[in-house]
Amino acid sequence: MATHPLWRPFIADGNAARQSQRVAFRQVDPGSLQDHDPHRADAFARVRDLVAGALGADHTIAHVGSTAVPGMIAKPVIDADLLLPDLGDERTWLPELEAVGFRLVFRDVIAGDPHRQLTLGDPNTNLHVWQPGAAEPQRHRLFVEWLRSHPEDRQVYADAKAAAVNAGNGLRYNDAKAAVVHEIYERAFASDPHHTHDAQPRP
User: Fold this and answer.
1) What range defines the domain where residue 186 resides?
2) Is pLDDT at 39 greater than 80 in this prediction?
3) What's the angle, vertex CA 35, arms to CA 106 and CA 120, rounded to 5?
4) Cα separation, 123 vs 109, whole angstroms
5) Total domains present in the chain
């Protein structure tokens, strides 16, 4: 069966499993779901400028996640993907980001790609750091683009977010909505005119 190059298998408790890779806790809690705030674009610009001031302006950084999707409810946290060719040599970039307020909270591997997650208190931010060519930031951009252009899936995802918050079943927030995220990706992959993708239903 053919699969989209950005496809990866469904993992029911992936966020819970990665907690062993945590090295610190975030400065500010994520908070509760809120209606879309158009000022989130300005908040991302502040994050982008902080990163550029610390590391130079020649790095790719993208606003991803729900705050990048107009009309989408979201926790008031900016998600951003930063690409660094020297990810493994933290001495070349981590002290500079820490000096402007970022904190390393995860050092792990996601879908085979090295990953670092940093947080920032103001604006409340998840900064995901990857090497160029990593699959996950490409997936993030595809997901945002799909939600921006497909209001029906935007509503499906919003409903899943609300259900994840209200479930009270002990699942972490990201794991509680992971099944819906997988299904949305399936539709996005199947609609990609550049790649063949046969349905890969989750177990």
Assistant:
1) 19-190
2) yes
3) 25
4) 26
5) 1
